[in-house]
Write a structure and sequence with these properties.
Blueprint (H helix, E strand, L loop, with lengths): L29 H7 L6 H13 L3 H12 L5 H16 L19 H12 L16 H8 L1
Helix pairs in contact: 2-4
Amino acid sequence: MGGSSSKKNTNTTPVWTPTTVTKPAPVPTTAPRALYELIDASPEKVSEGCLHLYTMETFLRTEMNKFLREANKEKLVTYGPFLRLLYFTFNEPSTVEVHSTTVYHGMNLIQSDIDLYKRAADDNTTLRWMSFTSTTANREFAEIQFF
């Protein structure tokens, strides 16, 4: 009788074989170390950690802002996952501790833009940017970034 066998072939070689690492990789310092420490954390801790990392005055914020400004698709693989975690953090209010504080953002503005901001402040209007905008609690740092 011509038929096919229903028996599975169990003599296959795996396509990927895990590699055993005998020497642990060195733990990086500062921002990379903080990111490394989030490997086994809960989703809430990962979100909180990513937000904290983004707010640190490190290369990560600078590079992420550059990526967002330039919309460089080649960097999407590098920064896309981190950016997605940040968006998740902001879209899940329960994961973000909200408090009020004064922050600064340095920017070069023309007079009409300055007038717009002053009117918004006088009217107690909340202004929103449709992208991430870095701020700092350090006024001097904000001033030297753009002047």
